[in-house]
Amino acid sequence: xxxxxxxxxxxxxxxxxxxxxxxxxxxxxxxxxxxxxxxxxxxxxxxxxxxxxxxxxxxxxxxxxxxxxxxxxxxxxxxxxxxxxxxxxxxxxxxxxxxxxxxxxxxxxxxxxxxxxxxxxxxxxxxxxxxxxxxxxxxxxxxxxxxxxxxxxxxxxxxxxxxxxxxxxxxxxxxxxxxxxxxxxxxxxxxxxxxxxxxxxxxxxxxxxxxxxxx
Length: 215
What we know:
This protein is α+β, with helices and mostly antiparallel strands. The protein has a domain at 105-135 and 165-182 and 203-215. The chain has helices at residues 2-22, 63-69, 97-100; strands spanning 108-115, 119-125, 134-139, 142-149, 155-160, 164-172, 181-188, 194-202, 207-214. The chain has a 5-stranded mixed β-sheet, with no helix packed on it. Strands 5-2-7-8 form a 4-stranded antiparallel β-sheet, with no helix packed on it. The longest helix is centred in the first third of the chain and has 21 residues, at 2-22. The relative contact order is 0.18.
């Protein structure tokens, strides 16, 4: 009986030895930082975002002075002037032009244009030498603009249209200092689209006529 117990103890002890030899050998893992973080510059700063303070008042800014500093002039210092600004007109110019002119320019028919607009914008300008030409505008035989001085830029009015035919007349009040009365006329619909353009040459008292048909 003793021999059996001794044999069992030897077998048990030997099995423990084999079990220990089967365990894998491990080595401790060493972790070290390759680079040290630079925390000297902001030792008290955490990971939170640095948000601007809405409580601390901002410094006063003089916007007027700043706007002057940013003011960039795109044009030369000299002031631009309208063509014909220094023109001196004789109020009696044109009274006897019809008899003295070498060539007489009578009435002109400028044609017709169709539109669905309720009104049109009619503008005109002196497209040649700015010499003081003046015109009177009629709409269906009613004066809608008694006296327009033609310059290098467009001037005009809006004209309400009747259903069907509308007659616009432009009467030359004079021929300026250099005849005849010359002008370019443009017509725009209510949406600002150019629908007609033409020119006239008129002696004093002559008319240029345009028919606008409202469909």
